[in-house]
Write a structure and sequence with these properties.
Shape: flat
Structural class: alpha+beta
Number of strands: 5
Radius of gyration: 27 Å
Number of helices: 11
Strand content: 5-15%
Order of helices and strands: HHHHHHHHHEEEEEHH
Largest sheet: 5 strands, antiparallel
Helix content: 55-70%
């Protein structure tokens, strides 16, 4: 629960403070928090089988070791300085060495003890191919495989760099390609796993139990994207799976409320967690279906249309700060021929919109990459291409200008 809250808080911070938008960027530090969350989720489901049926004991212990080890690994990645990320807390090699030694001792001792004692652990009761135990085991294995895929993509570039084999970047295309296909079967078997009988379940009984939910999710999953004008196979599949989980949880809670007797906290926790997962799936599907994103280079006077909105770069000026120097660009955001008001909050070095005349704040390196050049008075100058704002002649000049800008900062003002 606390890890989930921490990941949500980090997402909120990235969205509002960094102005990133989106839902997940597969940043290495984000991955460092996601991996123990995935294994801990598998651990929770495995513990249910251990508690109810006495099975999966060795598997449960192994998941507990993995979850704690991945938490320590995340601490090492975030605080050792091996990663460059806006989420990283510190760059302290000495602390990183200590954490790495501690991680090695914990993992080594835990796995040694597990290997010594595991043969003496009883296997628990038997279960059929179709049962609640088998479905929960399937979900746990899928979560562990997904964790392995994320771990590989996060650590592989670091290993390549440490071995002096070159620089390698593993980004969203890899993670989306390997992670999303694993989540589809996980979401599919999640629902029958909540209603199947222990030891041995009947396929016909499961079908009668879930056919109404399946039909509603399938129909609504096709109609909702179509009605919103964003139908595609991906949006239909994501919406269907999200509704499949959500409608099942709502149905089970409704049926349980009709029965007499006290409802335990475990029941509410289970279905609220599943509803939260459904909201995430629907949110991710909506973002990927409706988002429109373009990377453009603009000079003063340029106009760019993105979706239903037109952005016109009006002017640029310099804004002094207490311990920094920024440049402010003013944009008009136009929709249906009318300049609209955009409500947002300015940041020191990130492009954001705040009102009808939209100020965009950026540090000088951002302006260089955007092709905008300023004179000593903070005004845009003409470039050899004959337009205000353009591309600098040499990349080295850009880096030199930015270095001069950094050198002029009064670093004593930073705490």
């Amino acid at each position: 629960m606390f890890l989930t809250f921490g990941i949500g808080l980090g997402s909120w911070w990235a969205y509002y403070e960094l102005g990133w938008g989106g839902w997940w960027f597969w940043d290495p530090v984000e991955n460092a928090s996601l991996m123990p969350w995935l294994v801990a989720t598998a651990l929770i489901h495995s513990l249910m089988v251990t508690e109810k049926r006495g099975g999966f004991k060795a598997w449960t212990v192994l998941l507990a070791i993995a979850a704690f080890s991945l938490s320590l690994l995340g601490t090492f990645l975030v605080r050792s300085g091996v990663l460059t990320s806006v989420h990283a807390f510190a760059s302290d090699p000495a602390r990183g060495v200590f954490i790495l030694i501690f991680l090695s001792v914990v993992v080594g001792a835990s796995l040694t003890l597990f290997a010594w004692r595991a043969p003496q652990v009883t296997l628990g009761g038997s279960f059929g191919v179709l049962s609640r135990e088998s479905l929960m085991l399937t979900n746990s294995v899928l979560l562990v495989v997904a964790t392995g895929a994320v771990l590989l993509g996060t650590l592989y570039p670091l290993i390549i760099d440490a071995l002096n084999l070159g620089k390698l970047s593993v980004g969203p295309p890899y993670f989306n390609l390997v992670f999303a296909p694993l989540m589809v079967p996980l979401l599919f078997v999640l629902v029958p796993g909540t209603v199947a009988r222990w030891r041995q379940a009947d396929l016909g009984e499961l079908w009668r139990e879930l056919r109404g939910v399946a039909a509603a999710a399938l129909v609504l999953g096709q109609l909702a994207p179509w009605a919103l004008g964003a139908w595609s196979w991906g949006s239909a599949l994501g919406t269907t799976l999200g509704l499949w989980v959500a409608l099942s949880s709502v149905r089970h809670m409704g049926l349980r409320l009709r029965k007499p007797g006290r409802i335990g906290a475990a029941f509410w926790g289970q279905h609220l967690a599943h509803l939260g997962l459904a909201v995430v799936v629907l949110g991710v599907t909506g973002v990927k279906s409706f988002e429109v994103e373009r990377d453009v280079r603009m000079g003063i006077g340029d106009v760019v249309t993105i979706g239903d909105f037109t952005f016109q770069f009006k002017s640029i000026s310099e804004v002094p700060g207490p311990n920094y120097r920024a440049s402010r660009g003013v944009f008009d955001v136009i929709r249906d021929g009318q300049v609209i008001e955009v409500d947002s909050r300015p940041s020191d070095a990130i492009a954001v919109a705040v009102r009808t005349k939209v100020p965009i704040y950026a540090d000088e390196s951002v302006l260089d990459r955007a092709g905008v050049q300023l004179n000593a008075d903070g005004e845009a100058i003409e470039t050899p291409e004959g337009r205000t704002g353009g591309i600098t002649a040499e990349e080295r000049e850009r880096l030199s200008a930015f270095s001069d800008f950094i050198a002029e900062l009064d670093l004593d003002d930073f705490d």
